[in-house]
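--- STAGE predict ---
source: upstream dedup step, 1 unique chain passed
mode: sequence only
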Amino acid sequence: MAATTLRNSANRLNSLWKGVHKTNVYGVGAVPAQQRYQSTAPSMVGRDFLTLKQFSSSEIHQLLWTAMDLKTRIKINRELFQPLKGKSMAMIFQKRSTRTRLSTETGFALLGGHPVFLSPQDIHLGVNESIKDSARVLSRMCDLIFARVYGQDILDDLAAESDKPVISGLSDLYHPLQILADFITLQEKFGRLKGLKVAWVGDGNNITHSLMMGCPKMGMDLRIATPVGYETDKAVMEDAIELANEHGTSITTSNDPMEVAHKADVIVTDTWVSMGQEDEKQERIQEFQGYQIDRNMVSAMADNWVFLHCLPRKPEEVTDDVFYDEKHSLVWQEAENRKWSVMAVMLHLIKDHACQTNRPNFNAK
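--- STAGE serialize ---
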């Protein structure tokens, strides 16, 4: 049975990839999706936020608009805005974190809510108490569950058993909150998202997978360069190909970083050694030789190129002269936008929100 399932999956993937050779380009020539903008925000109350695959283009646009609305009103205008007063959130962290914990905990408090941080030493999740039982208890005591975990299946199980919304703070498969922050950062820089060419250079990991779910819906072409053996998940690629076809964008895969960097507007990378892969460190560093983003690589990009990294950063991933380039590197703005993006998600899953600032033009030319 398992062999048949794998064989069917492989046949489906091969049919989508028919005629594609060393450098693979998917979705080119597809009819562009209709641009639909709603005058009122689509309600997302009560939904889970586990992957961008679950959200439409208009819903992602709304989350980005709300994040920018909150940033303007709270940071710039110094407005006291606490729509989540009296609400509580359980924060489950199996993995250590700087940006995810700070952005979520401070963001929920800014909105008037009470976040409760729960480390593996604080609760019985999946050890002395099943995920099913934990989810049912947490959802009776809190209005929201936020989880940063290893397996995507843990998030799926929490969401299945909780009657309150569950937000992914990261799993080994996806990191959707990071991509929302990236999109906000690019909108602030370019004044648009549609038409941007994004190059990913590095491991085919959870950040890559979330870009694959988000970029097509925003009208962005995505090019991915990974070493042989470190490609993206095949099932995620299947979904991404379908999204690219649906939205008239392209996804390109290659093993040549310079090829994907050519004329790209944005170049993105991440750690070569994720949490849990420490034993593979030396092998990975060797395999990723030639994937360091440096001046030579960015010289092939568009003139107004920008660099993104979700942090923390290691010198082998990107040289100092690119990472600290004040004109082109947006890593600090990107890190700050983690707060505004998660605030938008937390707010929309608990109650509807009407923005008071002008809607950004995500499709500007």
